[in-house]
């Protein structure tokens, strides 16, 4: 996938509507689709993107579970492989469905209700869980230091706000790569709001902003699927080879080169190299995502719930010493943990969970915002349709 077209301006392909990340990427409105399904509001969801989001969230849960039992063997090989593309895929799709985002009040409101509110609620909840569940009475609640996986909400907030900037500059992808490289040589950035990850993962969000539906059609070609098989196998061998030779922190993109015990000039090289590998693996992943409606397709609309909730179990396992059990380092134990993690995050994406937690994940907060007078005026001024009647009847306007 390349930036081979002008990403903005007059385009014949309509952009998907801006939507809160809490519901995940909305369906692409590119016309009637064979695999699309209707939503209550009359919208169409693309099965391909919902399938991709579900599979990605399962990989996120597996990665977090495997991360507790790394053994310099098959588990760490799988862990490193998954970490090359599961979050890049999420970020790229998020960028793709942010193309219509601007600073209109309704979009800012969605950003607040879909990103800021869930972040505040769950950051507070995880901090309290750390304090009482792990017997850490001095553990403070800090919104500036995201817990574990919540960095993604901080990053998404910043990326969305900067979307208008990427829409006006001439070469957005090269600029984002420069910023990512600069981040890798700037240890003084610190950990506040995980700004290192905001910068180093930025190119995937910007790439998503530049993509159009036809680029995803290219990824779905049979030739790409076939080619992805040897690429995937090569990636497995490479992941195994890097275990004693490369720190896993390079895949987290959360620290600068000096913090990873490397000289400063290694930072840009490793950052750009790992981003390139992540892009290749993301393409391979998307190539094998089913395009038709599957049994798990409807779960794609609830991936944010699984993302926000599954870490409670991961942390609880760490607090109680569950992951220290010797059986989890045996093949059957690893298999059992893998199936358990996949099943739990799947349940967390179901509609009952969505209904129970929608008040904090996707809250309706009309009471908190002023009414957009300009938008109301535009709606009021829209002409009403004229009803045409046959001669002899009165026409109503």
UniProtKB/TrEMBL annotation:
MF term (GO), any: acyltransferase activity
Pfam families: Acyl_transf_3
Limits of the Acyltransferase domain: 47-345
Annotated transmembrane regions: 52-69, 81-99, 111-129, 149-166, 224-243, 263-288, 295-313, 333-350
Superkingdom as given in the UniProt entry: Bacteria
Keywords: Acyltransferase, Membrane, Transferase, Transmembrane, Transmembrane helix
Basic and acidic residues bias locations: 32-43
Biased segments, Polar residues type: 1-13
Region annotation (Disordered) ranges: 1-43
Protein name: Acyltransferase family protein
């Amino acid at each position: 996938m390349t930036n081979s077209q002008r990403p903005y301006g007059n385009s014949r392909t309509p952009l998907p509507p801006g939507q809160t990340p809490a519901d995940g990427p909305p369906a692409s409105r590119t016309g009637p689709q064979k695999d699309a399904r209707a939503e209550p509001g009359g919208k169409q969801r693309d099965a391909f993107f919902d399938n991709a989001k579900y599979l990605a969230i399962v990989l996120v849960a597996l990665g977090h579970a495997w991360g507790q039992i790394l053994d310099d063997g098959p588990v760490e090989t799988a862990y490193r492989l998954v970490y090359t593309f599961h979050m890049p895929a999420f970020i790229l799709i998020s960028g793709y469905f942010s193309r219509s985002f601007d600073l209109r009040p309704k979009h800012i409101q969605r950003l607040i209700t879909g990103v800021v509110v869930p972040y505040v609620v769950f950051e507070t909840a995880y901090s309290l869980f750390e304090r009482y569940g792990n017997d850490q009475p001095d553990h403070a609640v800090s919104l500036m230091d995201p817990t574990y996986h919540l960095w993604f909400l901080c990053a998404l907030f910043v990326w969305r706000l900067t979307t208008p900037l990427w829409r006006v500059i001439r070469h957005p992808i090269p600029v984002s790569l420069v910023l990512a490289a600069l981040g890798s040589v700037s240890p003084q950035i610190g950990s506040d709001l995980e700004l290192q990850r905001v910068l180093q993962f930025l190119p995937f969000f910007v790439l998503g902003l530049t993509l159009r539906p036809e680029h995803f059609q290219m990824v779905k070609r049979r030739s790409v699927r076939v080619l992805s098989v040897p690429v995937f196998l090569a990636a497995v061998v490479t992941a195994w080879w890097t275990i004693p030779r490369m720190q896993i922190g390079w895949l987290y993109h959360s620290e600068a080169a000096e913090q990873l015990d490397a000289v400063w000039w290694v930072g840009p090289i490793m950052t750009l190299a790992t981003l390139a590998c992540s892009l290749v693996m993301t393409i391979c992943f998307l190539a094998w995502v089913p395009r038709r409606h599957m049994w798990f397709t409807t779960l794609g609309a609830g991936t944010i719930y699984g993302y926000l909730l599954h870490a409670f179990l991961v942390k609880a396992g760490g607090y109680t010493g569950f992951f220290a059990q010797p059986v989890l380092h045996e093949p059957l134990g690893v298999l059992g943990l893998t199936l358990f993690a996949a099943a739990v995050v799947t349940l967390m994406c179901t509609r009952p969970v969505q209904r129970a937690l929608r008040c904090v994940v996707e809250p309706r907060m009309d009471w908190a915002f002023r009414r957009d007078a300009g938008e109301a005026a535009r709606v009021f001024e829209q002409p009403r349709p004229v009803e045409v009647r046959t001669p002899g009847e009165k026409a109503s306007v």
